[in-house]
Amino acid sequence: MRLKGIKINGFKSFADKISLSFSNGITAIVGPNGSGKSNISDAVRWVLGEQSAKMLRGAKMEDVIFSGTQKRNPMGFAEVTLILDNSDRTFHIEFDEVEVTRKVFLSGESQYMINKSACRLKDIHEIFMDTGLGRDGYSMVGQGKIEEILSSKSDDRRQIFEEAAGISKYRYRKEEAQRKLVRTNENLDRVYDIIAELE
Ligand code: ATP
């Protein structure tokens, strides 16, 4: 699996539609201060499912939408697509190329797509889970992440090893099943209450 390219439209400083291709090997992005280098990594992080505006250096999620300049009007939405090579079937999808898209409107409404088909944020989290790529993956190493790895809190370090070992998907499913169990027990209590009232 490899990141082959990214298409950005209306995200942060990118008012114009841009398309970047990443060939094999190492790609370095260079440019003057404030030219938008970090905005590209923010765009990648955003599509991978980042839900924290703070992690994207904003106050609220809509801050990722191009806010305009003296010469250009603000945009009404931001859209970013990651193009991933899937010839090794890292993602359990029968396509050699996987396109993952995230779009947000000024109203706050969000849209997610996998290979141009609408999906939920949950589906995006699930396809990236255990690939090391997801929101909590170790493929994006920001400043905070290094602190997390060096942290004395064993829980923080454990999360990184669990993602690498490919077991975070099962932890997530277990937690989801436990939440359902709690809800089911609450519903059961309600049913017992009603039965008791009727008797
Ligand atoms: P440095 O080398 O200093 O780290 P950089 O190349 O990484 O800089 P970025 O931090 O990616 O630069 O980009 C900062 C620029 O992006 C700023 O000029 C900021 O005004 C602009 N920017 C951020 N969010 C938006 C937005 N929503 N709309 C328009 N411009 C934005």
From TrEMBL:
- The organism encoding this protein is Congzhengia minquanensis
Question: What is the taxonomic lineage of the source species?
Answer: Bacteria, Bacillati, Bacillota, Clostridia, Eubacteriales
Report the domain of life of the source organism: Bacteria
Assembly, per entry: Homodimer.
Protein name (Swiss-Prot/TrEMBL)? Chromosome partition protein Smc
Family, per the entry?
Belongs to the SMC family.
Q: Which residues bind ATP?
A: P32, N33, G34, S35, G36, K37, S38, N39
Cell compartment(s), UniProt: Cytoplasm
The record describes the protein's role as: Required for chromosome condensation and partitioning.
Q: Coiled-coil regions in this chain?
A: 167-199
Q: What is known of its domains?
A: Contains large globular domains required for ATP hydrolysis at each terminus and a third globular domain forming a flexible hinge near the middle of the molecule. These domains are separated by coiled-coil structures.
* Residues of the whole record sequence present: 1 to 199 of 1185
